[in-house]
Amino acid sequence: MSRMGEQRDASGTISLASHQTRPSICFLSFGGLPQRNKKCTYVHIYWFWFSPMSKAQPTGYFITWTVYGTHLPGDGPNWRHRKQGQKLPAPLLRDWTADRLKHDVELLEAHMRLVTQAAIEHRCKVKNWKLWSAYVGCNHVHVVVSASSKRPETVRDQLKSASTEMLRIRFPSWRGRPVWTRCGDVEFLCDEDAIAAAVQYVEWAQTHKDREIDAAL
To answer: Which of these, 182, 217, 166, 184, lies nearest to 101 by C-alpha position?
Structure first.
């Protein structure tokens, strides 16, 4: 089902406008999160769009944040350092970080993911932000949103805060402990083609990754 303002061609590809798609590079990394005899498979996909430098505000943001204790530094192939970017696996760093966690690692179960999704949608509606798409997994969240005149960190933190509040109200197990990892990743979407590509990935995650997550849980 298409969202407002979207068009799909015969192949089902999303198109927000008739702009020619800009060249792009896509990096992928795969890994797994062992958790109490379970394994939750995850995938990272990073896009880099090439567009002319402009002082104009970005059209939207592709925001990602993770559940507390997951996606640790050094964990998995091509993990990302906050300042240095892509890095090779570092098992010793991963183990060192895991040993210093102050709380157990808990994954989001299906009903918790629904509450998180509803909290994100509600906050965007209240703030009058355009929510293009959102995906809540067992250990991470993707959001594609347009929020003019707002710093991306502000948008990210408000969405995380709204989700945390609702999870703690509904589920006592999240009270008195962190839900999310600090901060998160923000990618600037410079035009409508970039938004369409991000939405297409999030929709793919909704239809494919949910099956893997439910099987792992």
So the answer is: 182
